[in-house]
Hints:
Helix 1 crosses helix 3 and helix 3 (about 60-75) packs antiparallel against helix 5 (about 95-115). By secondary structure, the protein is an alpha/beta fold. It has helices spanning about 25-30, 40-50, 60-75, 90, 95-115, 125-135, 140-155, 175-180; strands spanning about 5, 20, 55-60, 115, 155-160, 170-175. Strands 1-6-5-2-3-4 form a six-stranded parallel β-sheet, sandwiched between helices. The chain has a single domain (about 5-175), classed as Rossmann fold. Helices cover about 50% and strands about 10% of the residues.
Amino acid sequence: MSPQISDIKKYAFHEGNSFLFDANIxxxxxxxxxxxxxxxxxxxxxxxxxxxxxxxxxxxxLILSEFINAFSRFEFNQLDPIIKxxxxxxxxxxxxxxxxxxxISINARKIIKLCCRCDSMFESADLPNVLARYEQGNSDFNDxxxxxxxxxxxxxxxxxxxxxxxxxxNILTANKKLLKNx
Length: 182
């Protein structure tokens, strides 16, 4: 069976299916842009269907880390320039970040509760190949490791990231760029 990119709005979820949600999906469901972005409802509906059909969702430390970092960077970038520290680390170490860190942690716990943990495949990944692809300048290192996880565990990647289009894995998305034929 060759890898497919399928429309998540039309996908029939079945018990026994296993998925890996990319950080951008978690940002749409539990991040600071949730409910402010039209894509939230599409991916939240898919999450409800996945849970209703007793499918498994996996997460690894890379995706959780990307979610946490993207959430905190988003909040940093939303600050009024008058009060915004010059450096992100200054913001992260500030008293005003504490409530944001708490919100991020609450949402990260929600994600962890929904998922089965898996390792990042660092020990078994074909790192020379991953680095060779990375050095070509058109792929993200973490994305390449996510592809390795999906391949090794036979997981369907749920993502809105068009960078995954040329990958040799099954993908579910609502991203029209990903759904277009090559």
